[in-house]
Amino acid sequence: CFMFFFLDCNMVGKLSLSKVRKAMREKAKGSIRLEKNVDMLVYLECILYLKEIARHSRTQAQLTEMKTVQAAHVERALTKVNAKFTTTS
Questions:
Q1: Which tops the pLDDT comparison, 12 or 77?
Q2: 67 to each of 17, 43, 71, how far by Cα in Å?
Q3: Residue 11 has pLDDT above 90, yes or no
Q4: N vs C: which end of the chain shows fewer Cβ within 10 Å?
Q5: DSSP 3-state assignment of 20?
Q6: Does residue 2 surpass a pLDDT of 60?
Q7: Do the Cβ atoms of 54 and 25 come closer than 8 Å?
Q8: What mean pLDDT comes out for the span 68-88?
Q9: Is residue 53 within 8 Å of 77, Cβ to Cβ?
């Protein structure tokens, strides 16, 4: 959740557009104006981020010839995905 500073990491599993809107509204507290579809773009970016982590984790598990994705696979995938998302953002 490094790039989605307004989201609580516990809510990522139950992520919905309405929760993203509510979190953005609460964090902004009227100090910033957002354009019309910013909440949708943030939601889609978050979904893309999670899918990339899942894909890289699965690849890491396959490289180690395991059928189950473990925490170590996710941690390795996070370093790759975080590097990718921080350079493109």
A1: 77
A2: 32, 30, 13
A3: no
A4: C
A5: helix
A6: no
A7: no
A8: 86
A9: yes
The alpha carbon of residue 28 and the mean position of all alpha carbons in its chain are separated, in whole angstroms, by 19
Alpha helices in the chain (DSSP H): 17-28, 38-63, 71-88
Q: State residue 1's pLDDT score.
A: 42
Instruction: With beta carbons less than 8 A apart as the criterion, state whether 42 and 23 touch.
Output: no
How far apart CA 4 and CA 45 sit, in angstroms, is 9
- CB–CB of 57/72 below 8 Å? no
State residue 68's pLDDT score.
93
Integer Cα distance of 61 and 67 in angstroms: 7
Rounded Cα distance, 68 and 62, in Å: 9
Q: Which residue has the tokens 């189950």?
A: 68
